[in-house]
Amino acid sequence: MKVGIVHDSPVPTLSSRQLMLAFMKRGVESSYLRISRLSSIMDEHGIRIMYGSEAGDFMDALIIRSLGFIATLEQVFRRVDILKQLELSGTLIINPIESMLKARDKYASIMALKAAGINVPPTAVVEEVFTAVEICKKWGDVVIKPMMGSMGYGSVRTSDPDIVFTIAKTWLTHGQPIYIQKYIPKPGRDIRVFVVGNEVLGGYYRYALNGNWKTNVAQGARTEKIEKLDEEIIDMALKAVNTLKLHYAGVDIGEVGDDFVIFEVNAAPQWSGFMSATGINPSDKIAEYVIKLLKN
User: Fold this and answer.
1) Around Cβ 209, how many Cβ atoms within 10 Å?
2) Can you tell me whether residue 21 is helix, strand or coil?
3) What was the pLDDT predicted at 3?
4) Distances, alpha carbon 93 to alpha carbons 101, 193, 270, in Å
5) pLDDT tens-place string over residues 153-165
6) Residue 105 or 292, more confident
7) What predicted TM-score, i.e. pTM, was given to this entire model?
8) I need a surface site. Which of 55, 65, 236, 247 has the fewest CB within 10 A?
9) Which domains does the chain have, with CATH numbers?
């Protein structure tokens, strides 16, 4: 049994190293693979997957931690096609590439969750400056985000139509659609829940720094373990992960009075904040889950 951890950092990231160690502790061979070095060759011998200049038996499973920095649409197609070819050849891909792409596309994932009856914020994606301005006037307080981004970077909250105009005009100049959500007031915190398979490992509060509205750990948010998760949160998180057909994910949930709303589902979540708050290392649970799938 061989498992590959896929990223594109020249040096294995912390989560990649933790996953490799988790598999090694369970007697499973694991390797770190840079996605930019994977290639597919089709000739009279069939279709072969190469890593650099090397061919041969490939992994039984791949855990996709990142598709790497992508500058062009052609790079997206190439990397996705290779992972699809591996799926077709019988390699277990965690998370499945189609599911990962849907989760990474914020609007596509929100649409899927909404269609499944899950509570999500009012959301729009536009490519016209004045449409963005009118949405801001209607909703009042809005958050503008990159359609594909992480850790809260690039997200801007405003209720000023002039600021929306400036951001929209700038982004559209660079070919970036405008993704807008109505701002949902939070009690200074939100909730991150970690799911592996059909199990919720736990959850924690992420408290924003004083004067900041962002609750991302990467932006300095303080974490606090939730001792007992509300059953509604557990059901909501599991439903979201199953809707997007993911094997594991981080689910970001907001409290709205006595109700809850899902902001985002992350198909390749970082877990340092989760570990520090709960003491649970998700890499162990992911390794156990993948080994079980391979054995079955």
Assistant:
1) 13
2) helix
3) 96
4) 13, 22, 18
5) 778 899 999 999 9
6) 292
7) 0.89
8) 55
9) 2-97 (3.40.50.20), 123-182 (3.30.1490.20), 186-280 (3.30.470.20)
